[in-house]
Structures are given as C-alpha cells and as structure tokens.
Specification:
Largest sheet: 9 strands, mixed
CATH superfamily: Acetylglutamate kinase-like
Order of helices and strands: EHEHHEEHEHEEEEHHEHE
Structural class: alpha/beta
Number of strands: 11
Low-confidence stretches: none
Number of domains: 1
Mean pLDDT: 93
Distance between the termini: 24 Å
Oligomer: single chain
Helix content: 25-40%
Length: about 240
C-alpha cells in the first residue's frame, strides 16, 4: 500500500463527546475504533495521542483560580481515562492495543518506554500514549509531536471536526478559504492556528508533516494513511 508506514494520530478529547456536552460517547468512540482498525488491517503502524478536554482542561481550571500545575496534572489523568476507553473500543473490534502513560500507574498502563513502544508498533499493536508529556505547561499537541518524533512516525494526522485548514473558522465565516498544501513558514506568516506554537515548532524543526482532516467522515482516516489528498498538509 502506498502512503505512510507509521503514523501518529492526534485526537481531541472533545471529539470523543459526540453530541454530548461532556464525557465519552460510546457510539463515537466505537466509530473511531472501526476507522483505526481499517488502517491497522492495511498494514499501517499506529500511535495515538488523545486530549482530555471532554473531562478536564488544566488551562480552564487555572483561569478560574486553580493552581495551574495541579490543573494540568488533572488534565493529564483525563487523557489516561480517554486512553482506557479507546483501548477498550479497539479491543472490542479485535485490535491488540497497549496504553503507555508518561505518569507511571502500573496497575492500568505501561510506563512510556520508547523502545518498547516501537516494538509494539512493529508487532502490529496500536500504542496509545496517555498522560501528556508528564509535565505541566505542555499541551497534548506537544505530547503528540514529541511522541511522533520519538517513535519515528512519518506524519502527524490531526483529526478534527473540519475538513482541513481554512483562512478563518469555517463554522463562523462562510467565506473562509480552504488550503490544501501549506509550508510551515506560510502557516507562520498567515497567522493560522493549527497547534500550539511549541508543538508546531517541534514539527517544523524535525521536518515532520502535519495533516489536518475531518475525522468524523467515514473512510477519511484510511484515505489519509494511503497518502490521498484529504484535508490539508503542512510540510517543509
């Protein structure tokens, strides 16, 4: 199969809510599991990072007076909860999965060990990376970029609710223009908000492409993994 051999899929915690206001929608996470299974069955090695915004956001807590470090630790734990939910959904469709956490919790997840993660991928297992980077003040976008670089992924696939990068928010501005191919410099110059600056700079410095696409459209994930023109790609 042409396309990518090893990918890092970044999902937002909000994506798991489906039509709910918070928490995890079993129907949505089951749909995602089937999309990921199709990619694994095609021979692609898959690492995944999920946010925790459907449960708790450290930045949001800090804005209401909570200690930022404490809030970020709560957010990291939320990503492990999401990781456990996705692990269960993937195993329900027959995919062997490992959950690794940057914060050690040996009863429910392996510690993140780079060589072990790569070995799991080589054996066809999906590896879910929870706990963010293990440090406060870093987003799950940064965690996704860091893990992608560490496991030698060829690309970051950022699954969102929109079908690519636009000149403005397409949900608010109907005249927004969609881009299909951008350089990292163009994203800087245009002031487009794709990832937080730490994550974006890490990707640029390591020549790691980012594809932004609509994860909620069935079949999109396998198309992107095959290298088809879906969404928007950012590369050097």
């Amino acid at each position: 199969m042409a396309g990518y051999k090893r990918i890092l899929l970044k999902l937002s915690g909000e994506a798991l809510m489906g039509d709910q206001q918070f928490g995890i929608d079993p129907i949505r996470i089951s749909e995602y599991a089937k999309e990921i299974k199709a990619v694994v069955d095609a021979g692609v090695e898959v690492g995944i990072v999920i946010g925790g915004g459907n449960i708790f956001r450290g930045v949001s807590g800090a804005s209401k007076g909570m200690d930022r470090v404490q809030g970020d630790h709560m957010g990291m734990l939320a990503t492990v909860i999401n990781g456990l939910a996705l692990q269960s959904a993937l195993e329900d469709v027959g995919i062997y999965t490992r959950l690794q956490s940057a914060i050690e919790m040996e009863k429910i997840a392996e510690p993140f060990i780079r060589r072990r993660a790569i070995r799991h991928l080589e054996k066809g297992r999906v590896v879910i990376f929870g706990g963010g980077t293990g440090n406060p003040y870093f987003t799950t976008d940064t965690a996704a970029t860091l893990r992608a670089i560490e496991i030698d992924a060829e690309v970051i696939l950022k699954g969102t609710r929109v079908d690519g990068i636009y000149s403005a928010d397409p949900e608010k501005d109907k005249t927004a223009t969609k881009y299909t191919n951008l350089s990292f410099k163009e994203v800087y110059d245009l002031g487009l908000n794709i990832m937080d600056m730490t994550a974006f700079t890490l990707s640029k410095e390591n020549s790691l492409p980012i594809v932004v696409f609509d994860m909620n459209k069935p079949g999109n994930l396998i198309k992107v993994a095959r290298g088809e023109e879906v969404g928007t790609i950012v590369q050097n």
